[in-house]
Inverse folding.
């Protein structure tokens, strides 16, 4: 349905044109009229007009002026001029202003009908052009998302192992890739941030890294695309028009520059350079690069796919020396010796993730043996969230391993030093009991867990220093506190029982009478001062 505006200072002529329009059968939704260009401008400003039929000669302004006004405002209206005079000057101006035709008055019905059909065709073409433009703009916006989806499917979906499956996906997604195109992948991994960063600052750094990739990997010979695999890993995909132009030395230099750039924004990264491949074997190349990444434990490296990670021929860790130093309390010297061990491995390059995993196992065995010799439960020392997190990260790099080693040694020596000072341990137990008397489940086992010592060893130390077993001391302290509360407060007997860890009033009363020789109520009557 179309909207039409007729502009003429003669109402009789307007009616004639309206009658002709009615007889043409053109689908009209709204038909507006105006007697001068001021009225016409108001309608054009407030309504969407598809077709404008306008007289040229009018007293308050010409049809030419109205067309010029509309052109200045980029109005999308199909215009036809009507005039009583066959003047070439008017015809030329009409064409210049985009008018589709120029009719003489009185208007011939057949001519107007023909012009309206012509206007309808122009509008249809404009609509189709707009639709195509909208589609092209939409496709332009979503193409990066579609391409990213394709590459992620190709990398992660093992079902796409056959060429036919990949070809089918390319056709379904309608993307500009063919099976014979060649691509060159580089895996970039963020290994660590050199200082604590907020989530917002991490996002900023990630943006800087992406912009740096596009800046560094800019050549006429290839285009660059970045696919984010997860929070730390990115695939840089280089598309070559002519694969013969590939210069591996140049790509290595680019990767080294990228590593230096990332270091400037407090970020340690490594690059793993792949090889030219078609979409059919692209995922296989990525799998090899991921393996290289998982085995690498050095920061800020550039490793090529044909450079197999060296098989580590590692000197055996000097566990005996480190154990001796720790037994002598030389914590600092032991840590320094371990760090030197890793520096030697790093210089020779004989180190990978497998080496670190084996070291972690050997080191923990050394620590567990040392703790066991001091009657300390290792599982209770090292089950906190931070220790578990550091242990998981330890095999990622030498730097992470050093952090974990320092953490484990310090926790171990703190506990051993505490055991070697039994008076301190006993005081710790007494303080803990005093603070937790209201807990019904307070026991030898929970107290031992707090001190990171085995229950048997803790009981032995405590009895040797105090003459009481932990259980007897706990009962003594509970009823000492109960007597104080009965004498110094107005708490009910059941409230007093609860305050010293007894949920059953009758059992508390029974135990109280056994220890004090009278019931709690009798004790209060006997010893509480009269107000």
């Amino acid at each position: 349905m179309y909207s039409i505006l007729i502009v003429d200072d003669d109402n009789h002529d307007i009616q004639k044109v309206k009658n002709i329009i009615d007889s043409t059968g053109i689908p009209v939704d709204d038909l507006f009229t105006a007697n001068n260009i001021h009225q016409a401008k108001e309608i054009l400003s407030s309504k969407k007009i598809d077709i404008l039929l306008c007289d040229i000669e009018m007293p308050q302004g010409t049809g030419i002026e109205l067309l010029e006004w509309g052109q200045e405002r980029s109005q999308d209206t199909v215009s036809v001029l009507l005039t009583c005079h066959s003047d070439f000057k008017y015809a030329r101006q009409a064409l210049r202003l985009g008018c589709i035709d120029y009719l003489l008055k009185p208007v011939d019905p057949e001519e107007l009908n023909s012009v309206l059909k012509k206007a309808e065709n122009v509008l249809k073409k404009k609509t189709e052009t707009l639709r195509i433009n909208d589609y092209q703009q939409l496709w332009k916006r979503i193409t990066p998302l579609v391409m990213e989806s394709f590459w992620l499917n190709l990398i992660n979906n093992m079902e796409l192992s056959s060429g036919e499956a990949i070809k089918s996906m390319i056709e379904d997604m309608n993307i500009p890739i063919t099976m014979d195109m060649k691509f060159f992948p580089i895996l970039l991994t963020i290994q660590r941030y050199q200082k604590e960063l907020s989530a917002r600052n991490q996002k900023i750094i990630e943006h800087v890294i992406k912009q740096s990739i596009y800046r560094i990997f800019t050549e006429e010979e290839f285009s660059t695309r970045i696919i984010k695999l997860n929070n730390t890993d990115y695939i840089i995909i280089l598309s070559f028009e002519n694969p013969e132009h590939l210069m591996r030395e140049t790509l290595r230099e680019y990767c080294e520059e990228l590593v230096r750039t990332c270091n400037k924004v407090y970020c340690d990264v490594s690059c793993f350079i792949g090889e030219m491949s078609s979409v059919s074997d692209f995922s296989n190349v990525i799998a090899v690069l991921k393996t290289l990444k998982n085995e690498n434990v050095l920061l800020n490296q550039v490793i090529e796919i044909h450079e197999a990670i060296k098989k580590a021929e590692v000197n055996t860790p000097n566990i005996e020396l480190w154990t001796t130093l720790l037994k002598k309390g030389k914590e600092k010297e032991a840590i320094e010796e371990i760090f030197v061990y890793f520096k030697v491995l790093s210089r020779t390059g004989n180190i990978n993730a497998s080496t670190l995993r084996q070291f972690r196992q050997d080191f923990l065995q050394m620590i567990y043996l040392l703790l066991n010799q001091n009657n300390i439960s290792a599982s209770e020392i090292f089950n906190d969230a931070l220790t578990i997190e550091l242990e998981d990260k330890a095999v990622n790099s030498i730097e992470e391993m050093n952090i974990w080693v320092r953490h484990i040694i310090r926790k171990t020596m703190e506990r051993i030093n505490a055991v070697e000072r039994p008076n301190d341990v006993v005081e710790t137990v007494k303080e803990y009991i005093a603070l937790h008397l209201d807990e019904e489940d307070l026991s030898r086992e929970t107290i031992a867990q707090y001190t990171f010592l085995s229950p048997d060893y803790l009981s032995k130390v405590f009895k040797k220093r105090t003459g009481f077993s932990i259980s007897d001391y706990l009962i003594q302290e509970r009823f000492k506190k109960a007597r104080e509360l009965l004498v110094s407060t107005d708490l009910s007997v059941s409230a007093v029982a609860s305050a010293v860890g007894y949920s059953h009033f009758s059992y508390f009363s029974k135990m109280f009478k056994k220890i004090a020789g009278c019931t709690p109520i009798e004790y209060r009557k006997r010893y509480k001062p009269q107000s």
Notes: The chain has four domains: 2-127, 178-304, 319-419, 422-527.
